[in-house]
Write a structure and sequence with these properties.
Length: 264
């Protein structure tokens, strides 16, 4: 993705195409699925300085030409993704960004229709959510200092509250425990205060609760197997340690389906 973006900031480089790679080419579990990915790159960490330098240079140009150059910079990822989606005949794209605001995150926000924000059930993550919302809306933030001509700002589709705990009281099926309830109220309060930044006006539309995937997520990552394809009782060796998929995978599959349905 770094090589794909670089021509937008360095004059004279050729325009890229056909960057997306088929997932099924290296993962047989994706056979018959029209799924592609754009590989990340460690050099994205130097992207903020390149974006900033390009914008400073653009500001030396006047009039409509300056507006067009800045639009091309800020929509660099969006325009490249659009081209790749047309070439691969795909209809949806998910961008996974780093948890802090940087150049790649900046371009990702301008490429997105809506954001999905994972938040852990701890105070540090809740504070980070407030900071993110401020970055999206505060005119003095790095995100809003230089905006494209159409003022594009993504809305928030959902906040996924992860690592939730559940009540062990008999009959209390799927009821959050007291600690999780505290963080639910904190996040809902933040959503209410910032509801204009969300895709609807009802705060309860935008908060979803999720378990900690623990062993299931580890098995899925190690074997490059989507969680919906894991089955209770399956066993495998990971780093010379025998691991087994337990019954909780079915609950996790249901949670993932719920999130998927809420996105689309």
């Amino acid at each position: 993705v770094y090589d794909m973006l670089l021509p937008n900031f360095v004059p004279g480089l050729g325009s890229p195409s056909h960057i997306a790679k088929s997932v099924s080419a290296t993962n047989m579990k994706f056979n018959n699925r029209n799924a592609y990915y754009l590989p990340s790159d460690a050099r994205l960490y130097i992207l903020p300085s390149q974006v900033a330098t390009s914008i400073v240079q653009a500001q030396t140009v006047s009039g409509q030409q300056q507006i067009q150059i800045i639009d091309n910079i800020l929509f660099a990822l969006k325009n490249n993704i659009k081209r790749e989606m047309q070439e691969t005949q795909t209809t949806r794209c998910i961008i996974d960004t780093s948890p802090f605001f940087s150049g790649a995150t900046h371009l990702s926000w301008h490429a997105s229709d809506a954001l999905i924000i994972p938040v852990r059930t701890d105070q540090q993550s809740v504070n980070a959510l407030s900071l993110l919302l401020k970055t999206l809306s505060d005119p003095a933030s790095e995100f809003r200092k230089i905006m494209p001509s159409n003022g594009h700002t993504p809305k928030i589709q959902m906040i996924v509250l992860t690592h939730c705990g559940w009540s062990t009281v008999p009959g209390a099926r799927n009821r959050p425990n007291q600690q999780t309830k505290i963080y639910i109220e904190k996040v809902l309060d933040i959503i209410r205060q910032n509801i204009t930044q969300f895709t609807t006006s009802d705060p309860t539309n935008h908060l979803l609760l999720l378990d900690d995937f623990l062993g299931t997520g580890r098995i899925s990552s190690a074997k490059a197997t989507p969680i919906p394809l894991l089955h209770p009782g399956e066993s495998m060796t990971i780093d010379r340690v025998r691991a087994e998929v337990n019954q909780s995978v079915e609950k996790i599959q249901n949670q993932l389906k719920y999130i998927h349905d809420s996105i689309w």
